[in-house]
Amino acid sequence: MKMLRRHMIGLLALPALAVALSGGAHGADAERPQYGGELNIGTVYATLSALSWDPADWTWKANHDTGMVREQLFAADLEKSVRKGGPHAFVADAYLPPDAIRGELAELWYWEDPLTLVVELRKGVLFPEKPGIMKARELEAEDVVFSYELVDGSPKKIATYFDHIERVEARDRHTVVFHFSEFNAEWDYRFGYGYYSGISPRELASVDAKSWRNVMGSGPFSVSNYVQGNVQTYARNPDYWDTEPIGGERYRVPFVDKVHYRIIRDEATLLTALRTGKLDILETVRWIMVDHLKETTPELRWHRFLSFNGDYLVLRMDQKPFDDIRVRRAMNLAVNQREIVELFYGGHAELMAFPLHPAFGDYFQPLEEMPEEVRELFEYKPEKARRLLAEAGYPDGFTVDVQVSSSTTNHMDMIPLLTSYLADVGVKLRIQPYEYASHLSLMTSRNHGPAYFMSSGAVNPLTSLRSKYSTGQTWNASMYSDPAFDAKVRRMYLERDERKRIALVREMTIEVMAAAPHIWLPSPYAYTAWWPWVKNYNGEMRAGAVRPGPIYARIWIDQELKRQMGFAKR
Predict the structure, then answer these.
(1) Number of domains in the chain
(2) For residue 35, what are the contacts with CB-CB under 8 A and spacing of at least 6?
(3) Domain range spanning residue 237?
(4) What's the pLDDT tens digit per position in 94-124?
């Protein structure tokens, strides 16, 4: 197994990339925007088709697939992007700092009293006609109430998610009132711009919500075609309400006629599609591919970002042998994290950026500031790992099944490396690959085994801890359960003072990490690449919870430049 590890590292130990990137931050393009054309994207989830079109299914990927059709009360203020001279890159999977939020369907919102939030909706926002289902009509407050009750009443709802909301009512045609049972520090995220916040017309109740043909909303696009495993196509909504300021003028969006999500599972095929101009944008390129692309396709522009996804090997704390903290700590000490950073990732990774991410500001506590019991988990100490295993009653190690997603390239590359490290201390992993949907279902149905390899987003400073470590939460794959920790999570959400929340989050992060519910792994840097004919863009990925729609609506294609570069017909 040591030979396997050395062989893998040797293959991956290519020369490190230069930090300087072609492209970089660009100001808004000075030229007038162009209408028309089609935008082809290999999204950050290019290997995955839509998991569901039904809001009541509570799928994490719904906003990625329907977020150009279903709008939300709030969205990212893209005027605050780095591209426009602002501070925000807008790549976090579900975090909008308070200064980066704008009203989307909400025109105005205010607290009527400490537990009553009033939202006044924009007037004149239209749901387009859907033949056989509904005629074009204006968005109304009752649609917001319907959309909330649809997800709140779902049996698939994440436990406690909307417990802070007592009821939602339409005060008048354009005013929605949220009555809180208690304050929640994530109120703007939970049903404002979060994963389960899309607004649909009430007519959705009379049709099959699982069909892509019935996805309805007031957004800049509609779903015009879907071929599972191949393409998701979105057509321009000519009656969309929003505009984009450019050069002192405001222009109606969207600019392109169609957006295509190309679903391509094979990494080599994705890269070929980018090089040949069949993709205008590829949102995620692994570091190991970047040098080659720069050599073969020097015209591409680039943006580098630290991944918000944490990769980790879950150790189920409710099952043997991982109910013993000595075993869990031994599993961590057996893995050479720094070697993974330097050789597996060629230096293009951070040792620790999960479950909290450095982009979360003061909520994030650097590893060097953590107590020794946490810092040690990132050290390579195989001798101590063997001692801990022996103390826990496993002097000869043990064998355990590990379920892994075969759809995730990085996982399939990483798991043999982990297998090799752990074999050195007597722990044998038996790999069980699953297609992504089946792999995810194992976890959400609690049928995953004691070891389960997964990715999960850091999300935002508060949700990351709640969703992965609170008792009974869907994404708590390690089955971490501590009543004292759960009580702190509740305190965190009730706390209105952010400085106190930051202190509490730091305290809880230390507790979770020291308990070693996972094998903690480094977080890699990734890259976004696009052709220079893609305008009004600088690598932004999400304008809410995994929602790119507002970003894509503001991109236009410079058709003449594309022709000059030999990628468009005259």
Answers:
(1) 2
(2) 255, 256, 257, 556
(3) 38-276+531-564
(4) 999 999 999 999 999 999 999 999 999 999 9
